[in-house]
Write a structure and sequence with these properties.
With 156 residues, the chain is an all-alpha fold. 78% of the residues lie in helices and 0% in strands. It has one domain (27-155). The longest helix is centred in the last third of the chain and has 30 residues, at 94-123.
């Protein structure tokens, strides 16, 4: 919850004068969409590996997916810190876009603590507890990473 509040503050809170446009961050949305795409592929790979009972490989892939998600979060905050405002959607599917955006934002806030708990339980070999929460975490995490790419496509 603290991480989500910190991200919200960094994006929506006050910033010093002259921050907007001080650094060219125009390439970061493409980087972010790429990181979300890689996260999606890693999550699917992690699922396949656990189904094959390749637990060590599964653990490594899931840590990598957490790494790409963390890199996304860092670049996302940097982008919004230096960007003057959000890019507005100008397409013909406004209702669909707003639905995707709203669900993406809400679930992105939810997935951060869930992913941390899921990873902790896996890392500490609490397999029954890990399995129980992972069954919820994985589809939500996949939804967030896929809709991140969809939002990018709709905006750019």
């Amino acid at each position: 919850m603290v991480i989500c509040a910190a991200v919200a503050f960094l994006i929506l809170g006050p910033r010093p004068e002259g921050m907007a446009g001080a650094v060219d961050v125009s390439g970061l949305p493409a980087v972010n969409a790429s990181l979300n795409s890689v996260t999606t592929l890693l999550l699917i790979t992690g699922l396949v590996l656990v189904k094959q009972r390749r637990f060590d490989a599964h653990k490594n892939v899931m840590l990598a997916s957490f790494g790409t998600s963390t890199a996304f979060l860092v670049t996302y905050v940097i982008y919004h810190w230096f960007k003057a405002g959000p890019k507005l959607y100008e397409g013909d599917f406004r209702t669909f876009y707003l639905f995707i955006l709203l669900t993406h934002i809400v679930l992105a806030a939810v997935i951060v603590p869930m992913a941390l708990v899921t990873l902790y339980r896996g890392w500490t070999d609490q397999r029954p507890k890990h399995r129980k929460i992972a069954r919820i975490t994985l589809p939500l995490w996949l939804y967030v990473s896929v809709t991140g790419v969809v939002i990018y496509w709709m905006l750019y």
